[in-house]
Write a structure and sequence with these properties.
Blueprint (H helix, E strand, L loop, with lengths): L1 E6 L6 H4 L2 H8 L4 E6 L12 E2 L9 E2 L1 H12 L6 E11 L2 H7 L4 E6 L7 H6 L3 E4 L9 H12 L32 E2 L2 E2 L9 H19 L5
Parallel strand pairs: 1-2, 1-6, 5-6, 5-7
Antiparallel strand pairs: 3-4, 8-9
Length: 223
C-alpha cells in the first residue's frame, strides 16, 4: 500500500512513521508513504496558502489553487482508490472503515488547517471525508497519522501474528476481554484460573463473557 499525505506541516509525521508497526511495515515493503508540502504548490511569492473567507466569518481558509495543483500532479503519477479529507464533520472512523481501507492499494489524504479548506476542494477532488471523533483539532495531521496506523496494521504480513488483529476491540462488535501475562500472582492479585486450564472451549467462553461485560459497561452504544 502507498499513501500520499498533503499537509502544511510534514515534520509532524516524522516520529509517527519511523517507529513501531508503521516502521516495520515499511521495512517489510508492505507500506510506503510520501509527504507533500502544500506550500510548495503555491504561486504566491510568500508561499501563502490561506485567505480570508467570503462572508466575513472569523478565521482563515485554505485556498484551492495550491491544493488542486498538488492533487492534479499526483493524479498523473498513480490512480487512487480514495482521496480522503480529514475533517471533524466527516464520518467517524471505526474498525469497519479501517478494514475496508486496508484493502486499498493507493490512498491520498488531505490534512486541513485553519478554518478548513475551500469547499470546492471537497466538491471536485475528495471521495471520502473522515473524522476521528467529535472534537476539533488544530489540523488534520494527527488524524491522518491515526488513520494510517489503523489501516496499515491490518495489512497481511505487517503484524508478526496476523491473527492478533482479529481479536482487537470492535472487530466483532465487542470490546476486547481482559488479558494477563506473568507473573501469575502480583501482590495477591492472581490470573483467572480458567486461563491456565488449557481447556480452549472454556477459555473462549470466558473471553466472550468478559468481552460482553466490558462492552455493556463501557460502550453499551455499540451492542
Amino acid at each position: 500500500m502507498h499513501i500520499d499525505i498533503l499537509t502544511l506541516f510534514p515534520e509532524m509525521f516524522t516520529g509517527c512513521f519511523d517507529q513501531s508497526i508503521l516502521h516495520r511495515a515499511q521495512e517489510k515493503g508492505l507500506f510506503s508513504y510520501q509527504l507533500h508540502n502544500i506550500r510548495d504548490y503555491s504561486t504566491d511569492k510568500h508561499k501563502r496558502v490561506d485567505d480570508y473567507p467570503y462572508g466575513g466569518e472569523a478565521g482563515m481558509v485554505m485556498k484551492i489553487e495550491p491544493i488542486a495543483a498538488c492533487i492534479e500532479h499526483l493524479f498523473t503519477l498513480r490512480t487512487y482508490d480514495q482521496v480522503i479529507f480529514l475533517t471533524p464533520d466527516g464520518e467517524v472512523l471505526n474498525q469497519s472503515i479501517a478494514n475496508e481501507l486496508s484493502m486499498c492499494n493507493n490512498l491520498m489524504m488531505l490534512c486541513g488547517h485553519y478554518k478548513g479548506v475551500d469547499e470546492r476542494v471537497r466538491e471536485l477532488f475528495i471521495t471520502r471525508e473522515i473524522s476521528i471523533g467529535d472534537y476539533v483539532l488544530s489540523g488534520g495531521e494527527l488524524p491522518a497519522a491515526v488513520l494510517c496506523d489503523t489501516i496499515v496494521r491490518l495489512i497481511p504480513g505487517v503484524l508478526n501474528d496476523e491473527t492478533s488483529a482479529l481479536s482487537d476491540s470492535f472487530q466483532y462488535g465487542l470490546l476486547s476481554p481482559p488479558v494477563y501475562t506473568r507473573p501469575y500472582d502480583f501482590k495477591g492479585h492472581t490470573v483467572p484460573q480458567v486461563l491456565l486450564s488449557g481447556n480452549e472451549k472454556l477459555i473462549e467462553e470466558w473471553k466472550l463473557q468478559k468481552a460482553e461485560e466490558r462492552t455493556k459497561k463501557n460502550r453499551p452504544d455499540i451492542l
